[in-house]
Amino acid sequence: MVFSRVEAFAPATVANLGVGFDIMGLALQGMGDRAIVEFQDAPEIIFSEICGDEGKLPRDPALNVAAVSARALLDHVGERRGLKIRLFKGLPLASGLGSSAASAVVSVVALNRLLGEPFATDQLLPFCLEGEALVSGYHADNLAPCLLGGIVLVAGTTVEAIQPLPIPEPFHLALVTPDVPVPTDSARKILPRHVTLQTMIHQTGAVAKLVDALHRGDLAALGAAVENDRVVEPARACLMPRHNEARAAAKQAGAAAVFIGGAGPTLCAICESAVTASATAGAMRAVYQNAEMSCISQATSVDRCGAVVLKAD
Ligand code: HSE
Q1: What is the CB < 6 Å shell around ligand 1?
Q2: Cβ of 228: how many Cβ atoms within 10 Å?
Q3: CA 7 vs CA 30, 38, 71, 117, 130: distances in Å
Q4: pLDDT over 90 at 2, yes or no
Q5: Distance in Å, CA 27 to ligand 1 centroid
Q6: Which of 60, 68, 203, 307 has the least CB density, counted as fewest CB within 10 Å?
Q7: CA distance 285 to 288
Q8: H/E element holding 132?
Q9: How far apart are CA 264 and CA 312, in angstroms?
Q10: 3-class SS at 311?
């Protein structure tokens, strides 16, 4: 079928899950980016509208994640027409909620349908990576769950490296995002360049326990594994104000585990019920409100679908 205009949605994601630095991520229900794409005869990609970004995103297609990933797909299929993109940002930038991944994915998923769906969804990963690499680096731990939904192991940057993992039941999430931008490149520069063999053994053991706990649906073991990171989160905590207080408040409210969403500053808590998730979101929000810092918070769960086409005409 031939379409002239396609609208798509791509969900927020959180990467790492504590110990799973750059190799694990999950999709979040609720928030995300939306885009409408149409062909134009001129070969360029232009943005006829970008909203929700407070004017912060580059309008230059060479510098914008959504356009760069769409360009990679257009070039791959030899399409000579250009694109008009309307991008509706539903995610705060540099927040640890996978904003750049959602922009990369939403334009590519919409364009794939506009092209008559030459690729299955997971096959779109390489094009999305081109866009994501612009701002976050060449890793797919936000992109893969954004494309596919669920909890995903991303042991590399190829399609073959993506492995969906089981979603335990019950599994609820509480999130807080203080209004303090933490650019991914700054949060990566602060990381240690080398770790000892002993630390490496500890860290791989913790990742293995995390995967095992997901398979067994053991939330207590999952929580212990998630929080067993000795490399990344300890180095990044200083970038996030009130980090320890918000973490402690979440635990006091009953969260099974708390981890930094991606590069932060979002804190994500895993909870055993919707009621606990709601209380945990409230407790973390109160920490920032008491410090007179603005933040957004929510109780949510895992999005199982990933990016979707909303409308095609
Ligand atoms: N895994 C990445 C990081 C996610 O933590 O730096 C952010 O893009």
Answers
A1: 15-16, 21-22, 136, 139, 141-142, 184, 187-188, 262-263
A2: 18
A3: 17, 9, 17, 14, 21
A4: no
A5: 14
A6: 60
A7: 5
A8: helix 125-135
A9: 35
A10: strand
